[in-house]
């Protein structure tokens, strides 16, 4: 079918109107084999031209929803079009959980994994680290299965859509658990300076929110298995009611706070599945720095606070554990991610993005693959020790560049 599509934020209008919506894996294989140029369309929560093509887009939304729990109850197989929020209910009903979720439960599992999207927690890897297996339709239409027994899996998981169409994933699961979510306000700058590592480790998941309009952290979101002791948190005070990270936005869109215990899937995301957290009128950028440079990176951004605050809705800082996935921004290093939700004004935002990249360059910052950044894609190759191996893997799966686009051409060469 033909239709004019944009990404979720509306800042990208796709270069094609041709969209394939197969309903079976066999139809996916036939479509891929017959195509000259193809990219996969997920939930559209990407802010650059990673998913764009002048050929055809392929959506997996029409595939049958699949949630197959393994007989040993340590894994679940899901289809490539499933969203995390739709995975949560059947997993929870079976007494199981994934290790983490992103802020939004609305994003697709395959899309989140292929761009190394993450939640938070010093001991929690990004969402892609849960992948135990992939089923990929490669350029010739053949369905290939990779498991952890295959050395290629570590390269294929964060694959940027360069290897083919991910039709199914097998994820690690664990017994279901409960969390309590607390929001504290006005964390003093002195606490960040003197106790940052302790603050970031003081919960299963920890997020620091700031608008860079003052010296304090506006909000601290703690997701904990146990109850918080009464009193202040490093000088921050417990919020007097439900809060939204962006001032003026309705707090009812957010997951329950106030320390009320609840299931993992109703606490790990910041936003409820039944609400759309915003209208998409925003841009997003994010950079990952080694955790040992966390304070220095925060101070470097703080030096630009006047430039940043003018075009910012909110900045969130989270931690992610190291992994061995070839194109993961957390490859071989525990990380702090600095995430910026901007106003929907590309012309005003891009110069600030460039300034931040320069400020964070001394810390070997790696941008999130699906966000807005200005660093030339070719310059990112040296940031990933296994990049040459990934390029070779992409060449084997897609020798004629069927899944390539100008964005990937600039990255892969």
Automatic annotation (TrEMBL):
Domain FAD-binding PCMH-type spans what residues?
12-176
- Can you tell which superkingdom this protein's organism belongs to? Bacteria
Q: Which SUPFAM superfamilies match?
A: FAD-binding/transporter-associated domain-like
State the Gene Ontology terms under molecular function. Answer: D-arabinono-1,4-lactone oxidase activity; FAD binding; L-gulono-1,4-lactone dehydrogenase activity
Cite the entry's keywords alphabetically: Oxidoreductase
Q: Gene Ontology cellular component? A: membrane
Q: Which Pfam families match?
A: ALO, FAD_binding_4
Enumerate the InterPro entries for this protein: ALO_C, FAD-bd_PCMH, FAD-bd_PCMH-like_sf, FAD-bd_PCMH_sub1, FAD-bd_PCMH_sub2, FAD_lactone_oxidase-like, Oxid_FAD_bind_N, Vanillyl_alc_oxidase_C-sub2
The name this protein goes by in its record? Xylitol oxidase
Q: What is the lineage of its organism?
A: Bacteria, Bacillati, Actinomycetota, Actinomycetes, Micromonosporales
């Amino acid at each position: 079918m033909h239709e004019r599509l944009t990404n979720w934020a509306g800042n990208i209008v796709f270069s094609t109107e041709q969209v394939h919506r197969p309903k079976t894996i066999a139809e996916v294989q036939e479509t891929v084999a017959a195509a000259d140029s193809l990219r996969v369309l997920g939930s559209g929560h990407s802010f650059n031209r990673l998913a764009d093509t002048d050929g055809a887009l392929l959506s997996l939304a029409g595939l049958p929803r699949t949630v197959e729990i393994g007989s040993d109850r340590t894994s679940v197989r899901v289809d490539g079009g499933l969203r995390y929020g739709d995975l949560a209910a059947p997993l929870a009903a079976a007494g199981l959980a994934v290790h983490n979720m992103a802020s939004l439960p609305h994003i697709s599992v395959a899309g989140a994994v292929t761009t190394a999207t993450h939640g938070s927690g010093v001991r929690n890897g990004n969402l892609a680290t849960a992948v135990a297996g992939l089923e990929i339709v490669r350029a010739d239409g053949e369905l290939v299965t990779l498991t952890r027994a295959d050395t290629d899996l570590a390269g294929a998981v964060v694959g940027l859509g360069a290897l083919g169409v991910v039709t199914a994933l097998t994820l690690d699961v664990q017994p279901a658990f409960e969390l309590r979510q607390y929001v504290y306000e006005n964390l003093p700058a002195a606490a960040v300076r003197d106790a940052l590592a302790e603050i970031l480790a003081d919960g299963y998941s920890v997020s620091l929110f700031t608008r860079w309009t003052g010296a304090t952290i506006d909000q601290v979101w703690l997701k904990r298995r146990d109850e918080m002791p009464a009193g202040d948190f490093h000088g921050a005070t417990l919020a007097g009611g439900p809060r939204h990270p962006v001032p003026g936005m309705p707090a009812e869109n957010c997951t329950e706070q106030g320390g009320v215990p609840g299931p993992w899937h109703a606490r790990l995301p910041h936003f409820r599945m039944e609400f759309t957290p915003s209208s998409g009128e925003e841009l997003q950028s994010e950079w990952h720095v080694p955790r040992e440079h966390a304070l220095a990176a925060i101070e470097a951004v703080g030096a630009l606070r006047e430039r940043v605050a003018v075009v910012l809705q909110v900045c969130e800082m989270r931690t992610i554990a190291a992994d061995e996935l070839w194109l993961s921004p957390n490859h071989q290093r525990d990380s702090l991610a600095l995430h910026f939700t901007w106003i929907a004004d590309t012309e005003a935002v891009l110069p600030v993005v460039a300034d931040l990249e320069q400020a964070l360059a001394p810390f070997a910052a790696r941008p999130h693959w699906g966000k807005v950044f200005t660093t030339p894609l070719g310059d990112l190759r040296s940031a990933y020790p296994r990049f040459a191996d990934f390029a070779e893997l992409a060449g084997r799966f897609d020798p004629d560049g069927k899944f390539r686009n100008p964005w990937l051409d600039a990255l892969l060469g």
